[in-house]
Amino acid sequence: DIQMTQSPSAMSASVGDRVTITCRASQGISNYLAWFQQKPGKVPKRLIYASSSLQSGVPSRFSGSGSGTEFTLTISSLQPEDFATYYCLQHNSYPPTFGQGTKVEIK
Amino acid sequence: EVQLVQSGAEVKKPGATVKISCKVSGYTFTDYYMHWVQQAPGKGLEWMGLVDPEDGETIYAEKFQGRVTITADTSTDTAYMELSSLRSEDTAVYYCATLLYPHFDYWGQGTLVTVSS
């Protein structure tokens, strides 16, 4: 199975900060990488697909990049509603595997 | 409007079996694979498996192989996930989701399964 390692596992940030979350795959996955946001008690919501394509309706402050084994999710200016847990998901090969999550908390 | 509506919360004893349903509406059920994802309390997301409603073909994660059965009933546009030999570690929220389609990302509301003696 492909292992997805996210970093950091948690972080504190302030409104307006630029936030970067990294996901590293144990082997190359091309651009078969998605990013999800999950708020407590809520269903995960996909933000990014194909590494860098913004899901319809998702604010443009979210962006994704990377290919192969290194990927990043960037929030250009953190908003109050962005405090949540973020997960990457690879689907280059079965089984699809999630990163362990990054919890973004208010500083 | 696309909807995935899951069955309600369940409480089961260790060793029992649980079967959760996921009824879809608003799209052609056979057009998209249905995935199931587990989330234990305070933990991350874990992919369990999928079914192709078109032909019933399944793929399961190795972790759940032998204990999970995912099926699809095209007469009722409903997917099912059955998990057997339940143990306390199976206490979790279970989601059905289309998951991997770029322009078709829909999730059920989640079903909490509590395994307790």
List the helices and strands and how they pair.
The complex is a heterodimer of chains A (107) and B (117).
Chain A: E1 4-7, E2 10-13, E3 19-25, E4 33-38, E5 45-49, E6 53-54, E7 62-67, E8 70-75, E9 85-90, E10 97-98, E11 102-106
Parallel strand pairs in A: 2-11
Antiparallel strand pairs in A: 1-3, 3-8, 4-5, 4-9, 5-6, 7-8, 9-10, 9-11
Chain B: E1 3-6, E2 10-12, E3 18-25, E4 34-39, E5 45-51, E6 58-60, E7 68-73, E8 78-83, E9 92-97, E10 111-115
Parallel strand pairs in B: 2-10
Antiparallel strand pairs in B: 1-3, 3-8, 4-5, 4-9, 5-6, 7-8, 9-10
Largest sheet of chain A: 7 strands, mixed
End-to-end C-alpha gap of chain A: 36 Å
Order of helices and strands of chain B: EEEEEEEEEE
Strand content of chain B: over 45%
Overall average pLDDT of chain B? 97
Largest beta sheet: strand ordering of chain B: 2-10-9-4-5-6
Report the structural category of chain B. mainly beta
Q: How many β-strands of chain A, per DSSP?
A: 11
Tally of separate helices of chain B: 0
Question: What is the CA-atom radius of gyration of chain B, in angstroms?
Answer: 13 Å
Q: Which consecutive residue ranges of chain B, at least 5 long each, have pLDDT under 50?
A: none
How many β-strand runs of chain B? 10
| Rg over alpha carbons of chain A | 13 Å
User: In percent, how helical is the residue content of chain B?
Assistant: under 10%
* Shape label of chain A: globular
Largest sheet, strands/sense/barrel of chain B:
6 strands, mixed
Structural descriptors:
heterodimer; A: 107 residues; mainly beta; seven-stranded mixed sheet; four-stranded antiparallel sheet; 11 strands; B: 117 residues; globular
